[in-house]
Amino acid sequence: MNTYNRIVEKLDKSGVKYNIIDQTSAKSRRVEDLVAVTGMTYGEGLSTLFFVNERDEIIVILRRDDRNIVSKAVKKITGSKSLNFATEELIESLGYEKGLASPVLLSELQREKGVRVLVDIKSNEMTRVICGIAKEGYALEIQKEDLFKLIGNYEVVDITVPNESRQLGVKKRILTGDRPTGRLHIGHYVGSLKNRVALQDEYDQFVMIANVQALTDNFKTPEKVAEHISELLCDYYAVGIDFDKTTVFIQSEVPQIHEIFVYLSNFVSVQQIQHNPTIKTELAQRGFEQSTPLGFFMYPIHQAGDILCVNADLVPVGKDQAPMVEDCRELSRKFNSTYGVKVLSEPKALFGVEHNLPGTDGEAKMSKSLNNCIYLSDSEGVLKKKIMSMKTDTNRIRATDPGTVEGNTVFIYHDLFNINTSEVEDLKNRYRLGTVGDVEVKEKLFIAMNNFLKPIRERRLEAEGMKEQLMKKAVEGSSKVRGISQGIVDSMKSAMKIKF
Ligand code: TRP
User: Fold this and answer.
1) How many angstroms does the Cα of residue 232 sit away from the middle of ligand 1?
2) How far is the CA of 176 from the centre of ligand 1 (A)?
């Protein structure tokens, strides 16, 4: 039986889902031409490459098509003095034609020919894999987890660098999350949601519903956390997060996060967490200073697990989360340098237009606990009431008194939400002169904000009727993330010599 038929037989017997892609319209077998006809990205391609060393040992390397092999690294790992591409004859003796090898039968090759299989660490983070199937003009599309189960024994090793000419179409990853403890408000919108919507085309975006983190200070009221999951899903849909572009997932469905957290916690001291400014404020807010629940105390490190479970490159968050992202970067750096690997990414925070939006009461931060929020889901009537009772310049008593615009919450909102900039300038001028009353400033703000919130409100209503569908998407998203995270966990375990 020829190799192609053996592969198909093995795939069918194993019961995995797969697809055979027709690439016959490609000009050549070069990856460049295959990418052009299939619309795949280089980061989804996985090549099976055969090498021979001076002892005639055959080494098979699986590497992503957006990466280059560093031969020095392979020599070191395999104890080889020289390393050459296998000759055409040798490849044929293994059952393949040059350029048409496939990873599916590697367990058989290990048994029959004693080949050694090295898998580049970066391949571990793939989801959809496109690889050879030993037939000219065709490729195999399969999920990484399914493929790797078929391969048999392999070593995960760090042996590649990016191939600069093949970065096109390889999207960087974004991860953010929200605790499901309340509805989202306009502070979330300007701080983070707006960025997420803007970036979802250009990036591979992941949005996590942080229900495990939410339990760290709500563990006695789990129903509150559970109920808010679908509220968050509706808010996401309402602001324009596209569930087909963005992978929305649920934290508790990805236990690999907890595993990453345990490994990272070796690299941080209790004192360091105590100095995290966000944790300091939050402990005070919750009255936890005297008796601090360990689960809550550890959440900054657990959050690094969230971010690194997909090896994110960017984290769009509000300014209050900056220390968390900083901790995460430091943990990655320490892990990588301690074990001499590049397993974990060093993600950067990305802040929204407004770092911390003030609340309607003029307090520095819009926050549910301060009861000063304008929610995305607020009705027109509620919005009007909230705006008309906003704090403005407290030193100004009469409409004829000159007022201060800077730092005045009503004008901060005007700047962010009123697209009629000449109206805003006019109001500011008259406010400074004392020729406009608060009521007019607020009424105009209401009109502007209502224009902004109306379409969001309408989409939210639509989402209410789609809750089941959105939940299904989040469950599917979680499964996808598990596949990626397990690869990262395996790489971490290899680095720490606990992978068996
Ligand atoms: N701690 C964040 C908040 O309270 C939510 C969150 C959880 C998060 N995990 C994350 C944000 C990972 C960014 C990345 O808003």
Assistant:
1) 13
2) 6
- 197: Cβ contacts below 8 Å, ≥ 6 apart: 239, 240, 241
The residue contributing the CA closest to ligand 1 atom 11 is: 177
Q: Which residue has the higher pLDDT, 380 or 99?
A: 380
Among all chains, which residue has been given the structure tokens 């024994």? 153
- Residue 188, token pair as written in the block: 């979330």
Tens-place pLDDT, residues 65-88: 999 999 999 999 999 999 999 999
Q: Work out which ligand 1 atom sits closest to the CA atom of 210.
A: 7
- Nearest Cα residue to 146 out of 483, 499, 485, 488: 483
CA distances for 46 relative to 64, 131, 338, angstroms = 5, 5, 29
Tell me, in angstroms, the distance from the centre of ligand 1 to residue 449's CA.
27
Instruction: Name 314's Cβ contacts closer than 8 Å, sequence gap at least 6.
Output: 172, 173, 174, 175, 199, 203, 347, 348, 349, 350
Distance (Å, whole) CA 41 – CA 46: 11
Binding site membership of 175 for ligand 1 (Cβ less than 6 Å): yes
- Asked if residue 307 has its Cβ within 6 Å of ligand 1, the reply is yes
* Per-residue model confidence as pLDDT tens digits over 13-50: 999 999 998 888 877 777 777 777 777 788 899 999 99
The residue contributing the CA closest to ligand 1 atom 2 is 178
The rounded distance, in Å, linking the Cα atoms of 368 and 345 is 33
CA atoms of 437 and 435, how far apart (whole Å): 7
The pTM (predicted TM-score) of the whole model is 0.78
Ligand 1 atom closest to Cα of 312? Answer: 14
Mutate which of 196, 213, 246, 309 for ligand 1 pocket (most atoms within 8 A of beta carbon): 213
Residue owning the nearest CA to atom 14 of ligand 1: 176
Atom of ligand 1 nearest to the CA of 175: 14
How far does residue 393's CA lie from ligand 1's centre (Å)? 33
Neighbours of 416 (CB within 10 A): 17
Report how far residue 266's alpha carbon sits from residue 279's, in angstroms, rounded to the nearest whole number.
19
Which residues on neighbouring strands pair with residue 309, listed in sequence order? Answer: none
Which residue has its alpha carbon closest to ligand 1 atom 3?
Answer: 178
**For strand 58-64 and strand 160-162, is the pairing parallel, antiparallel, or unpaired?**
unpaired
Single out the residue of 206, 178, 191 nearest to residue 350, CA to CA. Answer: 191
Average pLDDT over every residue of 161-187 = 89
Q: State both tokens at 123.
A: 């391949």
State whether the beta carbon of 327 lies less than 6 angstroms from ligand 1. Answer: no
b/e per residue 373-383 (b: at least 16 CB within 10 A): bbbbbbeeeeb
Identify which of 59, 51, 62 has the alpha carbon closest to the alpha carbon of residue 120. 62
pLDDT of residue 307: 98
